[in-house]
Amino acid sequence: MNDYLLDIENLQVQYVTDDGTVSAVNGIDIKLQKGKTLGLVGETGAGKTTTAMSILRLVPHPPGKIIGGTIRLDDTDIFNISEKEMERMRGNIVSMIFQDPMTALNPVITVGDQIAEAIMIHQKLNQEKANKKAEEMLELVGIPGNRRNDYPHQFSGGMKQRVIIAIALSCSPKLLIADEPTTALDVTIQAQVLELMKELKTKYEMSMILITHDLGVVAEVCDDVAIMYAGRIVEKGSLQDIFLTTKHPYTEGLFNSIPNIDNRKAELKPIKGLMSDPYNLPTGCSFADRCDYVMPICREKSPQKIFFSENHYTECHLYATDIDFKLGRHQE
Q1: Nearest-5° angle of CA 103, CA 105, CA 167?
Q2: Closest to 32 measured CA to CA, from 175, 179, 239, 246
């Protein structure tokens, strides 16, 4: 794997329900270098959290099922190891900051005990040493260590999120997955939490996947960006690639939906329509019904990856090299 800590190939995940089968992740590829941060961007239902849960092998089964693909984490094929081995990797090799700090913490256990639990399990320390480490972790995220014996309800939303970060980092993981870590926080606290995560990432030399729908957060934190839509990565590249040489119409639509602070009279241009029904994804490109550049081929055939550089690609028929193919004058 060379410099890659995480290598996902052709990951496919479905949820089988009474109403039908949800195609949540539909053959994505992700490579994450050691020490880098990847922003996973997309609207609700795009498959971002399912991708993260697949890395942790925590997709709820039933109804969820990983039906194809491979995930190599720290040079280990996680689909070919036992549950016991996977439990040892969670926390030690990969940790996750969950979306809502209000529900991620146990309300009847002190925050210190919740941090110490992970330390005792993975680092085999006794209760006294684990408690000491828990205090140190609280101090690290800006909370006085003497609050170790307080319960979650005694903390504000921002402080609860800091506690979650302390738990996630307590065993110095190589990969940190942050699932919309600032969604429930006000803007000032968001900035503090993001700055803290950047500092701790550098301190621990971690790789990070930041799941978000906020391109402003991506610009602040990420090295690379993957744009997800209907279970596919429709564009991926460096931060500069995505922000300065946008290729996919969906990525363009996301940027057009951001207010222009230099021209306050400019009207927003929202993306029309809604995401495709995951129970019944269309033939061809899932974005076709919402796309301003749709062509006949878009409704007939799924687009393939088109590379603009080694690391920047998109899945879009607009960039096919054969003009007859682009315009739909093709033969099957």
Answers
A1: 130
A2: 175
Nearest to 299 by CA among 277, 313, 317, 324: 317
What is the layout of strands, in order, in the sheet containing 224-229? Answer: 94-97, 175-179, 207-212, 37-41, 224-229, 232-238, 313-315, 305-307
End-to-end CA distance of the chain: 37
Strand 37-41 vs strand 207-212: parallel, antiparallel, or unpaired? parallel
Q: Give the H/E segment covering residue 255.
A: helix 249-256
Which helix (H) or strand (E) segment holds residue 326: the answer is helix 323-326
Cis bond upstream, residue 63 (ω within 30): yes
Per the confidence metrics, is the pTM higher than 0.85?
Answer: yes
Model confidence pLDDT, tens digit, residues 205-258: 899 999 998 898 899 899 999 999 999 999 999 999 999 999 999 999 999 888
Contact call for residues 14 and 21 (beta carbons, < 8 A): yes
Q: Are 306 and 315 in contact (CB under 8 A)?
A: yes
Taking each helix axis as running N to C, give the angle between helix 111-123 and helix 127-140, from 0 to 180 degrees, rounded to the nearest 10: 120
Strand segments (E) across 128-231: 175-179, 207-212, 224-229
Residues across the chain: 332
